[in-house]
Known about the structure:
It is built from twelve helices and 22 strands.
Amino acid sequence: MSLPTTDVKTEDLIAQAAKTKQLIVQKFGGSSVSDAEGIKRVARRVVDAQKAGNEVVVVVSAMGDTTDELLDLAAQVTDSAPAREMDMLLSAGERISMALLAMAINKFGASAQSFTGSQAGMITDGIHGKARIIDVDPHRIRTALDKGHIAIVAGFQGMTRSTREITTLGRGGSDTTAVALAAALEADVCEIYTDVDGIYTADPRVVSTATKIDRISSEEMLELAASGAKILHLRCVEYARRFGVPLHVRSSFSQNEGTWVMPSADDKITIQEGVALEQPIISGVAHDRSEAKVTVVGVPDIPGKAAAIFQVIAKAHSNIDMIVQNVSTHGTGRTDISFTLPIVEGADALTALRAAQPEIGFENIEYNENVGKLSLIGAGMRSHPGVSATFFKALSDAGININMISTSEIRISVVTHADLLDDAVRAIHKAFDLDGDAEATVYGGTGR
């Protein structure tokens, strides 16, 4: 597998790709295949990649808002749809996209075959709605490539090995499908196509002067993805880093060079003598409106109670993000524990906690969906003092009140009121001199 290195310019990487036959996995999001014209535009791009001498595998999302429309339909039918049937329903969106794209590719003179996730060998666990990939057997894809076909794969879905049930991978599932296939096929690169020209220092829909990043480390990209940046999902980046898959994020609406997600120093990047090694202090600002805040009020402040709370959450298959425990209230022997989790998992978590209330002995639960998370990410934070001071002063000057704070070596995250989130993003972006000279181009859609 050919990994991009810091002593090679991105233009040189493309030139190298043109000289030798490569296996390329391309992923196109819903905004790229939102209608017939979009599908035909993608088909031309895929055919051009094969004509350049490459083997091409394409992973597609559902068209436009198809998944949301299917969810709305299910809600009109029932408010308690079985998880198995929801997966059967939602997996249909990607199957529509893959078949239409294969038809368009064949119309343009190339040969394409489409495959569902199960046909492509995506083996998952049995958790419907948010299954995880446990194995990939791409022999049918390899056979199609050997016969000269372009392989089109439905993203976001797989199949359990024992029961052969259809599953969906949850948020970011198509990105994860693409990276998993790239790893299994030992692809040279996984190209993630979206409706912006790459990864920006902030969401260009919120900060119009956000600057495109040419290269970013997988470590920083993991923090951005975990903090709500929509361009790549956390699971996708984790998978790519684990298996050494180079990611190239670019727009399906232009031929512009995108952003390379680079391996870390542990992944044996070669350094050319004379090339500056200093990284920017800050890589970008991310925000997230998809989380809710839960406060468990009046928890007995004795060993084991926090563990009991989070064991309940784990059994409900809810993912915890930020956690804050208050100092025990004087004289009461009780404390409050607050945490954030995805809004879509809030109802299950609350039900599980309320069922465990008599055993754990807390007093009450407070739940708030009207919150937003803001994160500042940069590997340079490790060696540059004053980042936190600048961060919190900028929020103070903008009149932004903070509810929760969480940090890592290369990230500062806060939770604030959802209505203040956009103003907070712009204030932080400006405070760290991340604004560019021109407005970023957004071709449409939502940035995936």
